[in-house]
Amino acid sequence: MSLPIVAVVGRPNVGKSTFVNRIAHADDAIVHEMRGVTRDRSYHNADWRGVHFTLIDTGGIEMGDDDAFQSSIRDQAFMAADEADVILFMVDGKTGITADDEEVARVLRKVDTPVFLLVNKMDNPSKMEENWEFYSLGLGDPRSISSTHGHGTGDLLDEVVAILRELPEREDEPAEEGINVAIIGRPNAGKSSLTNRLIGRDRSIVSDVAGTTRDAIDTRVEHDGKVYTIVDTAGLRRKSQIDEDVEYYSYVRAMRAIDRADVAILVMDATLGLTDQDQRVAGYANERGCALIILLNKRDVVESGDVLDGLREDVGDRMTFVNYAPVISISALTGKGVLRIWDAIDEVYANYSQTVSTSKLNNWLEGIRQFGHTVNKGKRTLKLKYMTQTHNQPPQFTIFCNHPDLVTDNYERFLENRLRKEFDFTGTPINLKFKRRD
Ligand code: GDP
Ligand code: GDP
After folding, report:
1. Of all protein residues, whose CA lies closest to atom 17 belonging to ligand 1?
2. CB neighbours of 413 closer than 8 A, spacing ≥ 6?
3. Is-above-0.80 flag for pTM?
4. How many domains does the chain have?
5. Does residue 120 line the site of ligand 1, with CB under 6 A?
6. Which domain holds residue 21?
7. Which ligand lies nearest to the CA atom of residue 151 in the structure?
8. What residues have CB less than 8 Å from 378, skipping those under 6 apart?
């Protein structure tokens, strides 16, 4: 049985990590090492009065420009609502309510998951009651605590574990096996229909109403003697949630599936064309370094081949950052083109996992030097010396050179394009690192 989950959310500096460090077992900082996710959230083992649970610290979100920051606060709250059994929403009793607090509260007021409002930094035990202003967040009684001194935390945990004790036992998610494939895309693009095709049976009831299928589910499948875990993100909101956020929520779900995927399959509805959300999730897959395949679905209802060609062009023009991804047109309804997806998965996964020998890489680098295109600044000229592959899944190459600071984005793109011409990296992002070597 997997452990119940308690998530701590709130803006930076309210004291989340201090709280988590007080409660969690000191010796195991991160129990889950999910690729790419650890930067934003850490998972800890904890127990109280004999109840074991996983504590998620959503601490280290990075301050970006205001918009990015707002949306990451929102993401945090949504993700917590999706995966946690209890949410601890922490605010700062010294600073009072901020606009960011209100933003998080707005999301949390609408979810079914139990939420505790923690007013932290109430260090003076005799003034613990003075937290009235926080009632206005609309999340019930504010609970004063001091994470540094510990006041109020015991009573709070008593209440939290009382809820955890009442939870129905949950089934363990099946262990991931083989290649992890995430099916992502907008509501109604055809993700469930495609998943049913790939797993060879109807596992969900497909409906014409956007967002009526169930939660994301992992299914283990075998095809041609190989094992895959297909993660269908079609399903939406576990409990209550909010109609106007259906689209947004499918995006959050896609991000979470991408975080643990080897291969992401972006399903687009060819009758609608390319949408902003398609661009965003493709960008996220690229950033998180997973392999990508783009599907143009519903080709059976597209009147002519010209439409598909136009859409391919559009994808080429507006999603240049994933121009390595194969684009395949299919019909999940009739099954046309679906078999080709298996080959595509195997191909991009092989490219994503490959290791290129150092001698081949340095032969290639010699070619680049002879070609003579380099970067100059003042009296300095960039000289590439040698290179080696330092990671795979996805491939990462380290190039040793005299002045790493001279490398421009343009020059890096030039190198990436040349590498892609020489070696087969279809479907996978690649990373280049530059290190100084005199
Ligand atoms: P996070 O960004 O939300 O994880 O916040 P941190 O746990 O890193 O805490 C931010 C700052 O608040 C640190 O300087 C902590 O020492 C301080 N802090 C955390 N909890 C308390 C508390 O209960 N009382 C006081 N006075 N300071 C606290
Ligand atoms: P999801 O929300 O992305 O999982 O999309 P569904 O698989 O539930 O499909 C949404 C609607 O599109 C349903 O009515 C499907 O029958 C329909 N649909 C899915 N794939 C195709 C296709 O290839 N062709 C046509 N004509 N309809 C499709």
Report:
1. 15
2. none
3. no
4. 3
5. yes
6. 5-165
7. 1
8. none
